[in-house]
Amino acid sequence: MSACxxxxxxxxxxxxxxxxxxxxxxxxxxxxxxFAAHHECAVHAYALMDNHVHLLVTSxxxxxxxxxxRLQYRAESGIPFEDDQVRPIHARRYLLACMRYIExxxxxxxxxxxxxxxxxxxxxxxxxxxxxPIVTPHPLYYALGRSPEAxxxxxxxxxxxxxxxxxxxxx
Length: 171
Prior knowledge:
Oligomer: single chain
Structural class: alpha+beta
CATH topology: Alpha-Beta Plaits
Shape: globular
Strand order of the largest sheet: 2-3-1-4
C-alpha cells in the first residue's frame, strides 16, 4: 500500500432500495472484495442497509474504491446511488467509534435487536471471529488485545457501550 494512507467513512445513499435480495447484497460484497484488492484498500467495517451502504476503508485510493464499486454495482444492477459522502477520519480518535457506528446501524434502524443478528455487516467478523474475506483489521483493532479472542471480546464490549453519532467523535 501507498505511504500516504487515509481512513475514510464512505456512505453510498439511494432514493430507492439498493438491494432486492441476498443475491444482490452478495454481488455488492463480491465487487467490494475485488475492487478493494485492485485499489489496495483495507476495508475495516461495512453495513449494507436497504437504501445505503456504510464502509470504513483505509488507503491512499479510498475515493477511487468508492467510485469504482458504486459505478460497477449500478452497471450490473441498474440501481443508482445518488449521494456519496466520503469523510476522512482521525484514526486514533474516531476509527473504533466509526466501526461501532457502522456495525450498529442495523440496530439503530430497528432491523435487528443485536448486531450479530445482521448478516450484512462486518460485526460478526470483528466481534465474533467469523471469516470474512472483505474485512482487514486496523492496527487500532489489533491494539485491543494480544490474542484474537482478547481483541474480539474487547471490541464486543466496546460496541455494547453504545453508539454516539460519529460526527460527535471526529475532530
